[in-house]
Amino acid sequence: MTRIGILGAGGRMGRALIAAVADTPLARLSGATDRAGSEAIGRDLGVLIGREPVGVAVTADPVALFSVSDVVIDFTAPAASAHHAALAADHGIALVVGTTGLNGDHQQAIDHAAGRVAVVQAANFSLGVNLLLALTRKVAATLDADFDIEILEMHHRHKVDAPSGTALALGRAAADGRGVDLDAVSDRVRDGFTGARQTGHIGFATLRGGYVIGDHSVIFAANGERLELGHRASDRTVFSRGAVRAALWAAGQPAGHYSMVDVLGL
Ligand code: NAD
Predict the structure, then answer these.
(1) Are strands 225-233 and 214-222 parallel, antiparallel or unpaired?
(2) How far apart are CA 197 and CA 194, in angstroms?
(3) For residue 186, what are the contacts with CB-CB under 8 A and spacing of at least 6?
(4) CA 252/CA 202 separation, integer angstroms
């Protein structure tokens, strides 16, 4: 049995993760946290997800959670994930990170932890999106710059970062395929008199609204033809199941920074 702890238990993903761990035969929930002041604190994990009580309540104490877990899953917020990464390293506990919108300092904290424990980090834990990343790299490597690359994403109205971590990962995959640096060619926002599109650039467009869990398209547009690759998530369980699979895998790995490509053996 692998003991899995959940950080951010009261969130949309936190609740999905509690259910996914509870439904995984080889896993046991070691506990869960949320931020101090969250309405989830003190609630039974089973009740929190609309099931029978399990006798374990959400706390605001990540240190205690790390000391009773083999691996911990973090879908919280950027500064919280940086703090959790330092705790994972201090306790020698593997970590799975799904939080997006990290800045350079947050990412550095996670990279630092990966020098001491196994860290699986992915902007998207679904099997379909990880295949889409591989396909995007391949198509971008095959087509020349006559094909303009545009990445379109849509998410629910509560999402706080843009473009999504997955859209940026798709942009990096396309840039890798073309052998260019994404930062040098990305158009992340267009507004007003932008001038004509620059050849070789990779554009992003962001839509927000309703309850959309996550739609992504990569469009390769040339004169006379257009190729579109896309993925739609219609249920958060695609991320939570992938993250639990990553957690079971990470618990047995040496220190290092891993992605879902490693977990899935793609
Ligand atoms: P959410 O706002 O519903 O949940 C976040 C939870 O984290 C909240 O309950 C919040 O109180 C909690 N939190 C904040 N600070 C904390 C702290 N210091 N300690 C413990 N808990 C803390 O958001 P969400 O939709 O569940 O998404 C969470 C993150 O996961 C976002 O960055 C989102 O983009 C990302 N996400 C990633 C994937 C993926 O596959 N990688 C999929 C979906 C969402």
Answers:
(1) antiparallel
(2) 8
(3) 171, 175, 201, 202, 203, 204
(4) 38
pLDDT (tens, 9 = 90+) of the chain, 266 residues, equals 999 999 999 999 999 999 999 999 999 999 999 999 999 999 999 999 999 999 999 999 999 999 999 999 999 999 999 999 999 999 999 999 999 999 999 999 999 999 999 999 999 999 999 999 999 999 999 999 999 999 999 999 999 999 999 999 999 999 999 999 999 999 999 999 999 999 999 999 999 999 999 999 999 999 999 999 999 999 999 999 999 999 999 998 999 999 999 999 87
Residue nearest to atom 8 of ligand 1 (CA): 11
Strand order in the sheet with 71-74: 27-33, 2-7, 71-74, 94-97, 118-121, 256-258
Closest ligand 1 atom number to CA of residue 99: 32
Q: Is the pTM of this model over 0.70?
A: yes
Closest alpha carbon to 248 in 68, 32, 72 = 72
Contacts of 31 (CB under 8 A, 6+ apart): 5, 6, 45, 56, 59, 64, 65, 68, 69
- Tell me, in angstroms, the distance from the centre of ligand 1 to residue 228's CA: 30
Token pair of 224, please? 């006379």
Is the sign of the CA dihedral 262, 206, 149, 185 positive or negative? negative
Q: Nearest CA to 36 among 83, 72, 95, 73? A: 83
User: Ligand 1: which residue has its CA nearest to atom 20?
Assistant: 34
| Pairing verdict, β 202-208 and 186-187 | parallel
